[in-house]
Amino acid sequence: MFVDRKEEILVLEKEYMKASSFVVIYGRRRTGKTTLIEKFIENRSALYFLATEEPEVIQRRRFQRLLFDYTGDRVLSNFDQPLDWESLFIIFSRQSGKKILVMDEFQYLATVNPAFPSVFQLVWDRYLKESNTMVILCGSLITMMLGQVLRYSSPLYGRRTAQILLKPLSFESYGKFFDFDDKEKLLEFYSITGGIPKYIEEARSFEDPIKFIVEAILDKDSYLYREPFFLLEKETNAVGTYMSIIAQIADGKNRIGEIASAFNSNPSHFTRYLKVLRDLDFVERMVSVTEKNPERSKKGIYLIKDRFLNFWFQYVFPFLGYLEIRKIDPALRSIKNTFRSVLVPLVYEALCREATNTMAARGELPFVPEKIGKWWDRKNDVDIVGISKDKIITGECKYTSSPMDTKSLYLLEKRTEMIAQGKEPFYILFSKSGFTSELQEISRKKDNIKLITFLPD
Q: Do 274 and 255 fall into the same domain?
């Protein structure tokens, strides 16, 4: 099922209109990169090749068969002795008209033959660039794609005309996968799967999030049960260490010193591991929005950014010993105790921050903040803070069954005074269950208060 990706399709359409183009598509596994490519090349002259971890000669033979089917050139008919890569690409380049060459899972070719990026550079520079060809290199292993294609040290550096880092789908697009429009239920599913299309496809056949968890995640025979192992095995060479670091973050050890203490080790030992997890978009580092130098701040905390990994490390990893012998009750009790009361509200808070960013970009707020984030000190926190030179937006998010009342506004106003430093305040309040009549009346009388039930349309 193809949903959204309008911006990415527009980028590809724009590149296609050029005489020649070199597009790199990369991102986390299961985000729908291949589906995006399939949609784009539909009804266009294209040769699609999926690389694997097979020996190189086997892959050249497969590519030659595909090229023979594409061109009908009899030179390609001897599959027992496949031609070298340069000769194969030359034959492709000589085909008339506009054409697309897709090399999916490109990183595997560079793994079985480290010289392949150099070969492809030569082929692009000498032949493909001048042959009315659109090249699409696609890869799922982010660390490899960065090293083999995008970094300065790569032979292919500087060749790309566009690149697409395919991110998970937004919550705004999430409901298009489902046959119902219950926003609370959709948020619960989203809190499990995030915006990963492959996981959403798995979830869309269920109406109850808990049933989905039991049958598609806690069952040791389901692919989602072992998915985090698979993701980390493909991207890293120290799976156990990375698993343990993420598990510590899930357990509330959010500072690098706390993580290091859990291992009885020096914090500097974990810097490179955390950088890899951030590059993979599995983990994020958050600092209070008022920090002057966020990258140098020693107050940064680490959170699990990937929604599915966040759910899995909260509710599956701690109970693997039970789940391996098919005892799901301990995990299920934990899920029923805290999933709807703790995890879903935190996801809701993050979505409210994203919605504030979106509203600012659309001009739906009084000003466009220079940055939007969260603020906290040792005793207090504010869910949403947006800052400009002389104005400030602060926001509160409540995911409860009761309407938000005036106490929430008064507390937000008090905390805003702590950080405003003379800036003109604007308040934005998000509530799952709406607002009391008294708070609505105050909002009508003041022009610096915005009330939003659940999320903006």
A: yes
Q: How many domains does the chain have?
A: 3
Q: Are residues 378 and 278 in the same domain?
A: no
Task: Answer with the one of 135, 165, 195 that is the final residue of a domain.
Answer: 165
Domain assignment present for 1 = no
pLDDT given at position 137: 95
Burial of 404: CB neighbours in 10 Å, binned 0-12, 13-18, 19+? buried
Give pLDDT, residue 258. Answer: 97
Q: Which residues pair with 48 in a beta bridge?
A: 102
Report pLDDT digits (tens) over 97-155.
999 999 999 999 989 999 999 999 999 999 999 999 999 999 987 777 777 787 878 88
pLDDT of residue 148: 77
- Judge whether 28 lies within some domain: yes
Of the candidates 131, 148, 165, which is a domain's last residue? Answer: 165
Angstrom CA distances, 36 to 14, 96, 102, 219, 302, stand at: 15, 25, 12, 30, 31
- C-alpha separations of 2 from 181, 187, 191, 197, 308 in Å: 19, 20, 21, 9, 20
Per the structure, the complete domain to which residue 310 belongs is given by 172-345
The position carrying tokens 């506009």 is 98
CATH code at 445?
Answer: 3.40.1350.10
With pLDDT > 70 as the criterion, what percentage of the chain qualifies?
100
Quick one: 399 and 433 in the same domain?
Answer: yes
Asked whether residue 456 carries a pLDDT value surpassing 80, the answer given is: yes
